[in-house]
Structure to design on (240 residues):
């Protein structure tokens, strides 16, 4: 009888071991599938982000104007005053057969109505704006979002402009005595964008050679462009 009683016990133990083994196998397979799915998802996200960024860059500097790889021809620049953020920003450089064509700066307009407005600003080797696009913003729909090229042609009005095309006081909206239109019911947003673009042009004028030439290298290997120097009157220096 004791042997008979032990038989079912052994069978139960075996079944439990088999069940545990199957659960462990399913868990391992599941974990592997989750990891593979996560890797594939991360790759797709990275590819989509790269494609979106490339479209934005090509909106600012058309692809037919350059033949280098802007994703690898970059410099990291930092200037809280003129680029709008203390964080390092990537600048993309367009060249044709090695000759500088344009640089695309990542610029932050910190004074937006809904918060910071992130822009990409293209400036050619002569200092003329090749284009500007809004990357992210939180401006009021139907008012401040007219800074988007998809909603309004307002942002296209900067194309071809140079720093010295206007007196310094004209680099603002008309309500402030400047050159640029504001939006009906929304002045803060265009004011912030105009200021950010003006600051970017000043930065480029003072750092043109550095931006196209490679830049200085800090101790951690990050290339840092110098901030524009200011004369005694406190106004930013403009390159000749």
């Amino acid at each position: 009888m004791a042997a008979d009683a032990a038989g079912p016990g052994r069978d139960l133990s075996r079944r439990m071991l088999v069940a545990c083994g199957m659960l462990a196998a399913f868990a391992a397979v599941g974990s592997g599938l989750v990891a593979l799915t996560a890797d594939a998802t991360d790759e797709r996200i990275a590819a989509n982000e790269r494609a979106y960024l490339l479209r934005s860059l090509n909106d600012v500097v058309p692809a037919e104007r350059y033949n280098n790889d802007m994703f690898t021809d970059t410099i990291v620049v930092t200037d809280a005053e003129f680029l709008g953020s203390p964080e390092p920003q990537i600048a993309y450089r367009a060249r044709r057969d090695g000759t500088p064509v344009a640089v695309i700066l990542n610029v932050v307009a910190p004074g937006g109505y809904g918060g910071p407005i992130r822009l990409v600003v293209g400036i050619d080797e002569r200092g003329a704006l090749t284009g500007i696009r809004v990357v992210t913003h939180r401006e009021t729909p139907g008012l401040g979002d007219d800074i988007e090229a998809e909603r309004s042609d307002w942002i296209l009005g900067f194309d071809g402009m140079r720093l010295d095309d206007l007196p310094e006081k004209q680099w603002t909206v008309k309500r402030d005595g400047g050159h640029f239109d504001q939006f009906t019911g929304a002045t803060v947003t265009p004011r912030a964008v105009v200021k950010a673009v003006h600051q970017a042009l000043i930065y480029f004028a003072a750092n043109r050679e550095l931006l196209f030439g490679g830049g200085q290298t800090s101790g951690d290997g990050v290339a840092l462009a110098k901030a524009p120097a200011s004369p005694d009157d406190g106004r930013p220096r403009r390159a000749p």
